[in-house]
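cron nightly-structures :: item 1 of 1
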Amino acid sequence: MTRDLSLDPVSLTFWGAARNVTGSRHLLHANGEQLLLDCGLFQGRRAEANQQNRELPFRAKDIAAVVLSHAHMDHAGNLPTLVKRGFRGKIHCTPATADLIGVMLRDSAHIQERDAEWLNKRRKRGQEKVEPLYALRDVERCLKLVEPQRYRTPFAVRPGVTATFRDAGHILGSAFVEMALAASVTGDRPLRLVFSGDLGRRHLPILKDPEQPDAADVLVMESTYGDRFHEDIRGAEDALGAVVERTAKRGGKVVIPAFSVGRSQEIVYELHRLMSAGEIPELPVYIDSPLTAKVSQIFARHEECFDAETWAILSKGGDPFGFERMRYVESVEESKRLNNHQGPCVIISASGMCEAGRVLHHLANTVEDERNTVLIVGFQASHTLGRRLEEKARRVRILGSEFVVNAEVVALHAYSAHADKLDLLRFYEGMREKPGQIFLVHGEERQSEALADALREKGATRVEVPDYGARFALG
């Protein structure tokens, strides 16, 4: 007799972002099928990250569908590997996320192919060749599986599983997911699961504030800043202006490592506003990332994600992204010429954690000069160059060479697009029907455990900080 797989327990297995902030990947077993919530890249120690990104802990062809919260690489960056290994289901995400992963995954494949080629040229005869994690052909096959879904519109993920995307306010197109699982232990109704993805903050520029879920039986929530409170965003605008002004007076450069999606656009928005208001001097501002330029064009196409302030600027014919004032650097040659730029300027360049990309060359050419400033505006994971700079390391290695850090290093965490402890507690407390199970992910252990304690103080009884590979029955 054939066993009815729909009677198997509904469960979650945490294959990423478990007691750390990278590689978001959660395996949901429901109705006899396996569904994946996010499929991100691990970042950090190179050898360890490479192994985890290449060796999937499940069979890709057994995954029936992917529900993707947003386009950041630690949530979406390993989708092509999943396809390369045999996945053929649908990838559900918002329309803006679909557009973003198109440019971001192609960029990722290009970087990997180029890096593999560079390394292979330097390998000794007989050594095994380095293969990129995935190639452009894998990305193109992946993108054919993407199925965009609008906010606040329920859709079928698989038979017996429906989902609804709601605005998470984190980056363009980001969503938290409300899921209803028909095969559940609740008996008379579907099991309600909410997956937060990455939650944003209120009152950030450009995007709408995060929405609020009404009810859940199970909550899977990020905890990146689960142990701290952010500064007021209005104070960050003043601090940004002060950094630019004092660096300009020294005759130096402000180098801002920034993620191509979200943070770069926010910083451009604020610099444009500060210059237009005469609050900082009119300096050359270079956005040295072809990916950022493409992403900014995608921002301009998705007005459905904008807040009222940005809509007001657009309705008056304004330019919130400063396309006319900012200088977008395309070619490698033009990027290199910035090293010889005389006089004050601002350079915004990827990657945000200083682990790859053109920002490395700018840092190598600026960190030893005390006139310059390195401005950190985003979360820096452990074991990254960005974290070492943020922690005021006296010496750092960049592109294989050691440098003494004489430049001023400033961290403005108020610009973080992640919810802080107050926002995360509000997300839980705002539910009319509280979840009986809570799983805290996407946070380093200290942050996750601190938020778990705070939730217990608010009355939550079943709060887990899962280990990598841990599986839990739901309901």
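cron nightly-structures :: done
The mean pLDDT is 89.
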